[in-house]
Amino acid sequence: MENYLNSLEQAPVKPIRPTFLTVLCILTFIGSGYGIFSGITGYFTADTAAGVTQAAMEDAKDEIAGSSSDAGTKMAEKMLSGMSEMMNPENLKKNALFTLIASILTLIGAILMFQLKKPGFWMYVLGTIISVAAPFAIFGAGNIISMGIALFAAFIGILFVILYALNLKYLK
Question: Which of 78, 90, 115, 149 has the greatest number of CB atoms lying within 10 Å of its CB?
Fold first, then answer.
């Protein structure tokens, strides 16, 4: 009996993962999985997507050219111009690759944090930085669509980085 009690005292205590961290990791598994799927499919369908979108852009440009020149029309022209720049196969493939890389990094980071390993947090931060910087690097900082994509990625990424940072005390 005494040996049993001594073995209990010497048994290593496995740290318990907080429920909040578990939920964040599961949400990241889902989001990163979707990002990986999007990156792979986006890369292989870039040529088709560019062709279909370019045809639709030309029709929309012709329709806007015939309308009045108010502020809404100018904004629509700016957005169409930004979309036209974005929707070439090379840019779509680059974007898909960066999406794939960022998603893999955030997934690895979440897996490590799920295992309560602190390097996972930094891996997640790196993936988030890539997802925010990639649209600017690929499509240019002056492109209104790339700014929207980057702002969305930044909002979600920064929110999750902050939420993960609240759990840093549990990571080793």
Answer: 149
- The C-alpha atoms of residue 74 and residue 79 are separated, in whole angstroms, by 9
- Domain presence at residue 116: yes
Residue 95 is predicted with a pLDDT of 93
Between 129 and 62, name the one with better pLDDT: 129
In a domain, 1, yes or no: no
Assigned domain for 7 exists: no
C-alpha 17/C-alpha 113 separation (Å) is 9
Q: What percent of the chain has pLDDT over 90?
A: 55
Distance CA 115, CA 132 (A): 26
Looking at the 3D structure of the chain, how many domains does it have? 1
Q: Which of 54, 67, 55, 28 is nearest to 164 (CA)?
A: 28
- Segments forming the whole domain that contains residue 43: 18-170
pLDDT by residue (tens digit) across 118-138?
Answer: 999 999 999 999 999 998 898
How many other C-beta atoms lie within 10 A of the C-beta of residue 125?
A: 19
